[in-house]
Amino acid sequence: MEQPQLITKPCRYEQVSFLSRITFWWNATTLRIGLNREPTKDDLYKCPEEDEGYKSTVQFERNWDREIKDGKLNKRKPSLLKALIKTYGIETIIYGIFLSIDDTLNLVQTFLLGSIVRFFSTNNYRNVTWNECLYCSIGLVLSLFLYGFIRHQIIMRTQRQGLRIRTALTAVVYKKILTLSKAATTKTDVGYILNIVTNDLSRFDELMFSIIYIVLGPLMGIAVLIYMINVLGLASLGLVIVLVFLIPYQAITAKYSDKFRAQTAKLTDKRIKLMEEMISAIRIIKMFTWEKSFADIISEIRKTEMSKIRNAAFLKLLNISVHASAPRIMVFACLLFHVLLGRPLDPELAFITLSLCNALRLPVTYHIGNATGLLFETLVSVRRTQELLLLETRKTQSLTRSENESLNKGSIYVDKLSAKWDKNSEIVNLKNLSFKLEPGELLVIIGTVGSGKTCLVMSLLEEIAVVSGSCKVVGRKAYSPQESWTFAGTIRQNILFGREYYQSKYSKVIESCSLKKDIESFPYGENTLVGEKGYTLSGGQKARVTLARAVYEDADVYIFDDPLSAVDPGVAEHLFDKCINGYLKGKTRVLITHQLQFIRRADKILIMNEGESVAFGTFEQLNNVGIDFIKFLKEPNDSETENQKQEEMLSIDELYSDEATKQKPKILNPLKVTNEVEVAKIIEEQLESREEKVTLGSLGSRVYLDYFRAGGNLIFITIFIIMTFLSQGIINFTDWWISKWSDDSLELSQSYKNSTTNSDFATYSRPFITRNAYIYLGLMVSLLASVFIRLGMNYRICLKSSETLHNRIFARLLKTPLAFFETNPVGRILNRFTRDMGIIDVTIANNLVFMNLNLLQIVGVIIITGIVLPIIIIVAVLVVCLMWFVRRVYLQTARFIVRLEAQTRSPIYTQIATTYEGLTTIRAFQYEAKFIKQLYRLIDDNNSCKFMYFGVSRLIGMTLDLSMIALLATMLISVLSFPEKFPGGEVGLVISTLLSVFGSLQYGIRLTAEFETNMISVERVLEYGRLPLEPSWDTIKAGLLPKTWPNLADMEFKNVYLTYPGSIKPVLKNLNFTVSSGEKIGIVGRTGAGKSSLISVLFRLTEFDGSVIIDGIDIKQLGLHDLRNKISIIPQDPILFTGTIRSNLDPLTEYSDDFIWSTLKTVNLARTIECMPGGLDAIVTQGGSNLSLGQRQLLCLIRALLQRNKIMILDEATSNMDHQTDTLIQETIRAEFKDCTVLTVAHRLNTIIDMDKILLIDAGQVLEYGEPYLLLKQETGHFKSLVSKTGSSYSNMLYKIAEKSYFMKHPKE
Fold this sequence. Notes:
The protein is of the alpha/beta class. The protein has five domains: 18-391 and 699-1024, ABC transporter transmembrane region fold (Up-down Bundle), CATH 1.20.1560; 407-476 and 557-562 and 587-635, Rossmann fold; 480-554, Rossmann fold, CATH 3.40.50; 1051-1266, P-loop containing nucleotide triphosphate hydrolases (Rossmann fold, 3-Layer(aba) Sandwich), CATH 3.40.50.300; 1270-1304, no CATH class.
């Protein structure tokens, strides 16, 4: 649970001077490191305190709480948007004021440009002096510097504001998860929540800067129009016409963009939810060969999702095409009106118009549309987040002061309690339940599967809705759930759960929970990492770790939901005697169990059926009234000693314990490693081998090549490149044409004054105007068409690449060996399909489009400037070289920061997923605050990376701006030095184009760096495209596999060796044995002996050496699906998927309803399914949470029954069932699979003693193999020795069962 802070260096931003802050020079140290070497996490600094998780959340949380209260008072729905406006509205207005000042400088630059161009005009009709021109030039350079300086401050501030909003919403969403009611958890899922956190909340990153332009954009349009009227008069009507069409057009496209965004978000939720379920249950999916079924569903969702993304991209394409073309369209409209009114066109007027229209390019033609689209998208995200935050909250009832004083701690009072999972449901799960428990008593709850036992536990934990009556638990509670829950940490961390470590207490808990020998067997003892969902632990070990967590708590009431079913009988006896009825003696305990041998030792017994109390009282009281549980109890043999009775309950692992102790080499006792430095070193060593690797160095050209190859073939990309340069050529030629037109128009005006014609100027100039107007119109049409085609091809390449890459890695993931999923957390894998694919879907496409526009525009400007002023080329080359050097330095640092940011993001998602899964446990211990603190710690690491990235980007931006200002200054000095050599049109063209690319230059260069950092997502996705592959799913050799295979189902293992990936030591060594058709084999061995590995070999979950031959065919020659389809398994952990009963039993729709119903009846589950709304189409929530664990295990059994395969694997399939159901299942298995070959992994000797043969394995080798009776006849045999350790009476009983079974099979002997 507790993870160390990754970034620990104190915040540098808070330590530096004011000047260093506003110039961003505080990042220079980090950039200097990038010059010499690859940075590391130790080179980064923490973010400012105001950007940390806790500080970012406090004020917003207060406003959201007030909004909820106001909503209740006024009987209206609370508005998340209002809470956001209250928290961040004033701050945004302040930024808006500064941005207005900043954009006003654009108008100042236009005025100064007019004076400069006027000086260079042929007649200089307003008599601008050289000194005035010099002052205007200095003013132009200074205004440009101020424009860039203010803009960088605002961008930094708004980025930090967006970061704080996202942080606050993430924290509030997380806190909401911790308060969700049980009913609410069935209406949402991890995938939905993760999609909100990863995609929806990231909208605020961009929005906070652009949103200001929703108000500022129209104001800038009005200001420019007023200026234009002053310059052009009536001709400014052209601008009005363009703006009248442009602004509504952007609003309409934004509206439809909102629609597509909402549809995309829902589809992404659905896809991620299915992905999360699929990855979590990949072992079962592979065994049942359901990969194609899941692939088809997810691929279909992705296809629909991509169609919505394409629709949104088309709207974006229209907006960006207009953004790229609009300034020229505005100029065309205004100048056309001007000349049609019969007025002469001079360079000053032409380039003031061009400059004013360029001033509108960002505020009006880009930011309004972009901000409107982003706003609508964000409103969808806010709406979705609000829906999550307004889900039903768990209701808890604190005891009154008088009750606290009068009631004894540890007492439980349940009075006429009726309760249900969902308060809106008609089904009442608990009905009129009453009982009382005094402090220190042990209550054992028993009942059939689905009788309401877990529902009662949830009532004691205040997890479900109380309909009537009351349920009071006095004092602190500790809880051990039915489904073991572990988080990614060490065994010790899972037990301590963030509490203080007391060695004496800890050792007692370990001993009482039978964990000492397990811990000693682990490579790092108690400091061994258990992995996500405890994949390194067996089911029994997970159950005991979960139990130890509850026992370590100093509580008044301990609630145990069937913790004994996942462990072997001997361990169960130990846990009951030494822990529940030993270490915790004197505490109030509530225990659900199916193991009825323990009820004699309970103080009180509660028998439940269908949500009602059948009986409550002591064992003697219930015995006296003739409760029929007596028949399930084993009558004690008075002649047996206490030791003998305990020996009878010994599990196979317990029977091996003495031998293991003798064989175990002496090592440092893992329980004694208490030195914190040593512990930290051990944990770090394990984390390094498991943590996500951060790729170092620059991105290889292969990444770009793979990306573009995924987007189109060579011919298409070549046409796209040609179209790009052609389009840019048309844009630059259009600008040059204005310069030529204005100079020619001035000459025409002069010739008219010198002519003797009697006609007016309009008539005189009409042929000239008509010719130029048609040329300009042709250029405009060509420009629009070429820009649209160019950007359309760009988007097509990006979206095709996105689609191809997703499909490629998804297909690869499905065919990846199981070992990959066992060593990578779900959050890490999902990160590729959420955040990384989100960046590839949208961000990279936009990056590439704007790079296309901006960088080509820069090239065009340099060419035009070079033609007019050749000396500028030398300066431009120097500036470009400087920029490229700055970019290289920036990239070295930015690449690492982005990669580390991605790495620090994954644990946040894992924390959210883990919390959601362990919600009941966390709340039972009242440890919500500890988990919130951990989330803040993870957020702080991520925010530190983001803050460093913001700062480094701004410093680079300012550096690039200064280089651009230097270029402008050089150009102005050159033209002022030789004023007679440059006509006004050319000077106006060069200055206006340089001004138009001022922001574009640093933005374009920074875009290339951002594009490369975003391409890290492509690199990360491509890594999954190189995952190792399983062998082919289908059999390659034609005619090898008969349709009826396996007909007999006999097996032969020949020289089988199995070594897991990453290990050099084989876990199975030279296995050789045969299984005849229809034989029932019991597999016996201690934990770690190789039983599970044997199953892995049979299913080929891991490739092995040697051969396994079934019906004469080596399974290595078969396709994996052809093999796995013919083997059924009933696993120990029952896993269900979101969907229906039918989709869980038959996802491939292979069986008829009648067949499914008849199978349900064989395990007495038909009635339960019939009572559910929809029958076979009844909804199954995520993980099957709306069904009891026993019901889930029955459904998993039905899956195997439906397949009717000739080979069956059983792995303690009835551990969570009551004795009646257990007996029914055992009889069903014997009847239904009597002609099948059955391999049973044994946890208890009595379950396999009557089987045809016993396979005894140890350390991966076959020790003995044969019929149980014959093995017991071998005096020095290992199996004989194992059975004899169970005690004389129990071993005699086992011997008799084996003997009877043997002679029934061999009657003549």
